[in-house]
Amino acid sequence: MSPPRRLRVAILAGGRSSEHEISLASARSVVAGLDPERYEIVEVAIGRDGRWALEAGPDRSGHVLVPGTGTGPAETLPVPAEGGTLEALGVVDVVLPILHGPFGEDGTVQGLLELADVPYVGAGVAASALAMDKDLFKKVMRDSGIPVAAHHAIRLGDAVENPFGYPVFVKPARLGSSVGITKVHAEEELGPAVELAFRHDEKVLVEEFVSGTEVEVGVLGNRVPPPVASLPGQIDTLEHEWYDYASKYDEGGMDLVVPPPDLSQETIELLQRRAVESFVASECEGLARVDFFVRESNGEVVLNELNTMPGFTATSVWARLFEASGLGYAEALQRLIELALERHERRSKLVY
Ligand SMILES: Nc1ncnc2c1ncn2[C@@H]1O[C@H](COP(=O)(O)OP(=O)(O)O)[C@@H](O)[C@H]1O
Ligand SMILES: [Mg+2]
Question: Ligand 1 pocket check: which of 134, 166, 178, 179 to mutate, most ligand atoms within 8 Å of Cβ?
Answer without folding.
Answer: 178
